[in-house]
Amino acid sequence: MLAGVGKIGRIGSAGTGSAGLVLEGFQSVWATTTSPETVTIPCQNVGTFNAVIEWGDGTANSTVTTYNDLDLAHEYATAGDHTIKITGLFPNIKFHNGGDKLKIKKVLNLGDVGWSILDRAFYGCRNLTDFTAGSTDTSAVTEMAVMFRDCDALINLDLSNFDTSSAINMQFMFRDCDALTSIIGVEDFDITSFITTSSLTSFLTVGKMTTAQYDALLINFEAQAVYSGLTPSFGASTYTGGGAAATARAALIASDGWTISDGGIA
After folding, report:
1. Degrees, nearest 5: CA angle 212-214-219
2. Is-above-0.85 flag for pTM?
3. 31 has which bridge partners?
4. Residues 55-69: pLDDT tens digits?
């Protein structure tokens, strides 16, 4: 494999959401159903933490400095939806199919908070319906494996400006995301840092990208200095026959030794 250069540059910490709403930091929406009820944000022991959490219920902010800081847990007095905002250094989140995985409903902005690893980040978050990367900076993230596995309420994700230039592993990234019909920005992924033939295994297994997204992905991947012998699955995604996407797909198979599973010609 030849070394690749990331094509997406660093983005500032402020993004613009719907109706011109300025979003800063990592913003997400969580639901509680009883009163009182505690929400715990799960992390792993990677990176440096020095973040402020605004819990969205008018209570005092929390400052967290370790991955297992007691202030990563917060009790809500009233049931309902709660918008949590995190600013500062917050290098990872890792549900890993456990904890309060069913309480997170939306990611409004992944934010620029010093992300360094996102493996198994939202694995098992079956009630996650919306995900927008927004004004994030993921240029230092090396692991994205199993990131959205079993997020079967997601219909589409907006990963525009998602920088994957440092990612060495994306296997199982969207595995069993049954309802997926669109992954905005996936066509721009940089996969030049992969280091094993399993780096793209079971990337997407049940859901799909749009045909336009999958066409662009095939063309983009074929143009990169990709790792040989990858065995990616692109779920039910279909590509346009007889054009540039079909030519790129054939070249990945013939020249780079890839074994590709997908939904075939559109």
Report:
1. 95
2. yes
3. 81
4. 999 999 999 999 999
DSSP letter, residue 242: T
Nearest to 210 by CA among 146, 151, 155, 147: 155
> In this structure, what token pair is assigned to residue 33?
């159903």
10 Å CB burial of residue 70 (0-12, 13-18, 19+) is: exposed
Domain-located, residue 218: no
Tell whether the model's pLDDT for residue 7 goes beyond 80: no
Strand ranges inside 77-134, DSSP E: 80-89, 104-109, 130-131
Range of the domain at 65: 18-209
pLDDT digits (tens, 9 = 90+) for 181-224: 999 999 999 999 999 999 999 999 999 999 999 999 999 999 99
- Phi then psi for residue 247, to 5 deg, are -65, -45
3-class DSSP assignment, residue 20: helix
Instruction: Tell whether 24 is covered by a domain.
Output: yes
Residue 220 belongs to a domain: no
Tokens of 27: 């913003």
Q: Are 172 and 178 in contact (CB under 8 A)?
A: no
112-128 as b/e: b if 16+ CB within 10 A: bbbbbbbbbbbbbbebb
One-letter amino acid of 200 = L
Residue with tokens 């008018």: 58
